[in-house]
């Protein structure tokens, strides 16, 4: 297979991520403290206040998935007694530790100085950090984030999270880093976050155009890279999103679609889809190509919102820093109840003039998968647009069956065609 | 005549359906899928065109008042003779291939003896073929591989013994040859085979007039107007993209063509189970398939049949004799095999265990159906498993239990559903 062709912004974010790996792996020399934390509800701005480097095990698992290492790591973890049905991000991480904990730059990851569990909407995260704590014997700071079971964030919930930030998280990070917390420093960082968030939203919403200048799922995962990881709140992220915006604007002006892995530009877009659920990482390019071959572009997705639902109006707010961090954690996509997710997805189908909703259900992610079939049916009912359901996994290559996935996708696209023809005839 | 053809390249068998431009089914053909999809598609298509010829013969013969009531017999006779001639032609090819394959240096010492054995065996097969294709004889299989294979084994064992030659050696030559023959696309034109069959057949006993009509009918060109491919092997078809349709759509439309009131379709094929909802025009609205693994599909029964040393077609009838049902929990094919041996060891009766296995398959299908949005009236069951009485019995019971009184349609030709949908797409592509 030839090397995948990438947009300039994708190359830029690759450099940024590589830079972060360098910062993490050189921590023993630079003396910086290292935290492990998760993408949803991450408190990058707060960590920055203490000069702590941010290592994200999920991102490591994704990297290992895309570099085709996760399969071996998962087997390693299974040898250690982890069941076949456990989240494969966890097993890829545990397996990587078993194999020397080598970062993508070839250098060993340093042991974390602190485990910052800032989102409990995924129960597995807690168990994952329990395993890491047993391994590293370092302090764990846990921020309990209540589930928004009634579909909205209440002032009480915010107060509860802020109280924990003040009483547990901030003092804990002060102790680990030896740095005194400075709320004005946090305000400055949050102002940069909000700026980048504005540009990200603009880019993601460009999917409303026809043709769409972006693929909001396969391309989208690159676009969210910096803001969902260690760069939110940095000038680098602001610059990245300015550059991304220019790039997308240029395609819009030229009436062009996104660049695809085989180097073609997907301007002739036959199908516009909204996708729910994370992508498969082990066959990422093959999976994307199945869409490209059929002329399908993803115009909106829920996965590109796991690290913040900025398109619904949320911004980190320098005027009210701690409350805004609390709201951010509470507003994670998977922290929203099923009716809210239905509302969001149905609205996407309408707003982005999509042909329908495609669910990529992940075998080992209950946080996403529970209720997805019901979500699909309800979105179908509300929008009158057909849905489809495919099943793959995050980073376990054994659960990506290309023939079956392709078969279902082709069937879905042909079903959309048939429906269109039927509708034209009726008209 | 303009022919619109649908070809369904399944994992086990390949089916083809020929339609005329009014969507009337003119012919059906089936063959084993082999490892070579191109040949399988060519053979299935040729079989469907042969069947189309027979339909055309039928139409021509129906015009003779003097033949009223005799047409079926005449056609059966023509077909029987056609199959016989076709079998002999293939035997000829197989024999020549076997003789070629004894020409390798490894067999130089025994070549002469081996060739004699082969000549003896094929002479025997030709001699026996009359009986095999005699009127009223039920053949165990319609596939050449099965018929020739059974006859060959029988005759070769004796011939090798007489000649003092190793049976394994001849078997080896045969295995190599049958694969080559099976993977060769048909070369003989169907028309020449039919002419030989008509000459051989006494059916044209209707007199020279009838014989002439049959010859004239044979001269009608069968023009391939549009071919649509479907099934797992569809990507292998040398067709442009617009000639390829997903089997979900083809099954949905095929079921609609068989039973226009169909709203829900269940198809249990060799390696997948599909639950499909269609609208009143046969357009697919929703579908679900087995995920990640093929547990509970047709192959499951094939595996169980092997485990019990039974023929696939014998499973259903035996399960129907059950007086109770042994509960089988596992939908995993391999585990079900283990459960089966365990139950046998515990003294359970084979028929009772088989009844449980059939229920396990249908329970899995019911779960896929519920994921696809449940069962709506009318409900059409298709695929190879729809021919299994025990599976149908379980399905009827579970549908009634879960969805109440629903019309359940099963067409005896349901194995052709995908190809039928494909042929309908072919007609639509040209006429709409």
TrEMBL record, chain A:
GO terms for molecular function: iron-sulfur cluster binding; metal ion binding. Gene3D superfamilies: 3.40.50.11890, 3.40.50.11900. It comes from the Bacteria. Signal peptide: none annotated. Keywords: Iron, Iron-sulfur, Metal-binding. NCBIfam families: benz_CoA_red_B (TIGR02260). Belongs to the FldB/FldC dehydratase alpha/beta subunit family. This is Benzoyl-CoA reductase subunit B. It comes from Rhodospira trueperi.
From TrEMBL, chain B:
InterPro entries: ATPase_BadF, ATPase_NBD, Benzoyl_CoA_Rdtase_A, CoA_E_activase_dom, Dehydratase_Activator_Redct. Residues 5-426 form the ATPase BadF/BadG/BcrA/BcrD type domain. One of its GO terms (molecular function) is metal ion binding. Signal peptide: none annotated. Keywords: Iron, Iron-sulfur, Metal-binding. Its cofactor is [4Fe-4S] cluster. It comes from the Bacteria. PANTHER family: BIFUNCTIONAL PROTEIN [INCLUDES 2-HYDROXYACYL-COA DEHYDRATASE (N-TER) AND ITS ACTIVATOR DOMAIN (C_TERM), BIFUNCTIONAL PROTEIN [INCLUDES 2-HYDROXYACYL-COA DEHYDRATASE (N-TER) AND ITS ACTIVATOR DOMAIN (C_TERM)-RELATED. This is Benzoyl-CoA reductase subunit A. It comes from Rhodospira trueperi.
């Amino acid at each position: 297979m030839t090397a995948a062709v990438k947009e300039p912004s994708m190359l830029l974010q690759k450099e940024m991520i590589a830079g972060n790996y360098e910062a993490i792996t050189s921590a023993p020399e630079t003396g910086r403290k290292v935290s492990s934390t998760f993408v949803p509800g991450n408190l990058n701005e707060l960590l920055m206040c203490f000069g702590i480097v941010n290592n994200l095990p999920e991102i490591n698992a994704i990297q290992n998935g895309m570099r085709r290492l996760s399969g071996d790591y998962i087997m390693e973890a299974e040898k250690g007694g982890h069941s076949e049905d456990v989240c494969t991000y966890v097993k890829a991480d545990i397996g990587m530790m078993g194999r020397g904990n080598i970062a993508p730059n070839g250098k060993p990851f340093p042991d974390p100085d602190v485990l910052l569990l800032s989102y409990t909407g995924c129960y597995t995260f807690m168990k994952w950090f329990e395993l890491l704590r047993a391994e590293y014997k370092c302090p764990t700071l846990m921020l309990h984030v209540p589930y928004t079971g009634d579909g909205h964030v209440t002032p009480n919930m915010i107060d509860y999270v802020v109280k924990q930030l003040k009483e547990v998280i901030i003092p804990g990070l002060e102790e680990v880093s030896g740095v005194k917390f400075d709320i004005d420093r946090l305000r400055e960082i949050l102002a940069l976050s909000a700026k980048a968030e504005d540009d990200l939203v603009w880019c993601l919403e460009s999917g409303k155009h026809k043709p769409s200048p972006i693929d909001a799922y396969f391309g989208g995962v690159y676009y969210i890279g910096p803001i969902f990881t260690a760069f939110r709140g940095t000038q680098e992220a602001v610059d990245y999103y300015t550059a991304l915006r220019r790039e997308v604007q240029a395609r819009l002006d030229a009436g062009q679609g996104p660049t695809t892995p085989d180097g073609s530009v997907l301007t002739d877009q036959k199908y516009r889809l909204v996708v729910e659920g994370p992508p498969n990482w082990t066959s990422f390019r093959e999976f994307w190509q199945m869409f490209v071959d059929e002329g399908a572009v993803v115009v909106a997705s829920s996965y590109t919102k796991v690290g913040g639902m900025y398109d619904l109006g949320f911004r980190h707010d320098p005027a009210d820093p701690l409350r805004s961090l609390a709201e951010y954690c509470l507003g994670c996509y998977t922290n929203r109840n099923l009716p809210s997710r239905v509302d969001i997805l149905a609205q996407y189908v309408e707003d982005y003039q999509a042909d329908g909703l495609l669910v990529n259900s992940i075998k080992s992610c209950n946080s996403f998968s529970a209720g997805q079939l019901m979500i699909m049916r309800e979105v179908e009912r509300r929008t009158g647009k057909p849905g489809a359901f495919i099943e793959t996994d995050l980073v376990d290559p054994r659960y990506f069956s290309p023939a079956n996935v392709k078969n279902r996708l082709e069937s879905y696209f042909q079903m959309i065609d048939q429906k269109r023809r039927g509708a034209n005839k009726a008209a | 005549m303009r022919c619109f053809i649908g070809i369904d390249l399944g994992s086990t068998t390949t089916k083809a359906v020929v339609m005329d431009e009014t969507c009337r089914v003119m012919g059906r053909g089936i063959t084993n899928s082999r490892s070579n999809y191109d040949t399988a598609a060519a053979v299935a298509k040729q079989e469907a065109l042969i069947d189309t010829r027979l339909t055309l013969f039928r139409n021509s013969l129906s015009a003779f008042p003097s033949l009223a009531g005799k047409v079926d017999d005449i056609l059966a006779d023509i077909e029987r003779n056609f199959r016989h001639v076709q079998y002999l032609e293939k035997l000829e090819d197989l024999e020549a291939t076997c003789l070629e394959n004894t020409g390798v240096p490894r067999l130089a010492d025994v070549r002469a003896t081996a060739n004699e054995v082969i000549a003896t065996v094929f002479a025997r097969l030709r001699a026996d073929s009359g009986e095999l294709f005699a009127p009223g004889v039920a053949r165990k299989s319609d596939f050449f591989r099965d018929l020739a294979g059974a006859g060959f084994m029988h005759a070769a064992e004796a011939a090798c013994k007489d000649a003092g030659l190793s049976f394994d050696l001849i078997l080896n030559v045969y295995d190599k040859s049958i694969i080559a023959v099976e993977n060769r696309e048909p070369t003989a034109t169907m028309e020449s085979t039919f002419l030989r069959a008509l000459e051989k057949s006494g059916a044209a006993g209707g007199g020279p007039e009838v014989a002439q009509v049959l010859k004239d009918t044979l001269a009608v060109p069968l023009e391939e107007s549009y071919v649509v491919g479907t099934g797992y092997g569809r990507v292998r078809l040398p067709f442009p993209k617009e000639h390829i349709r997903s089997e979900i759509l083809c099954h949905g439309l095929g079921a609609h063509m068989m039973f226009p009131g169909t709203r829900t379709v269940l198809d249990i094929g060799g390696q997948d189970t599909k639950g499909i909802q269609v609208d009143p025009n046969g357009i697919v609205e929703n579908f679900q398939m087995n995920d990640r693994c093929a547990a509970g599909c047709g192959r499951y029964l094939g595996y169980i049949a092997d485990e019990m040393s039974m023929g696939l077609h014998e499973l259903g009838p035996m399960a129907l004799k059950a007086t109770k049902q042994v509960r089988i929990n596992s939908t995993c094919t391999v585990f079900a095999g283990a459960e089966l041996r365990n139950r046998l060891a515990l003294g359970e009766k084979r028929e009772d265990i088989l009844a449980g296995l059939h229920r396990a398959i249908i329970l899995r299908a019911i779960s896929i159906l519920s994921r696809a949005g449940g069962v709506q009236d009318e409900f059409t069951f298709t695929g190879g498993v729809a021919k299994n009485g025990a599976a149908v019995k379980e399905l009827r019971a579970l549908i009634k239990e879960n969805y109440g009184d629903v019309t359940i349609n099963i067409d005896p030709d349901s194995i052709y559903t995908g190809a039928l949908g494909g042929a309908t797409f072919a007609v639509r592509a040209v006429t709409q």
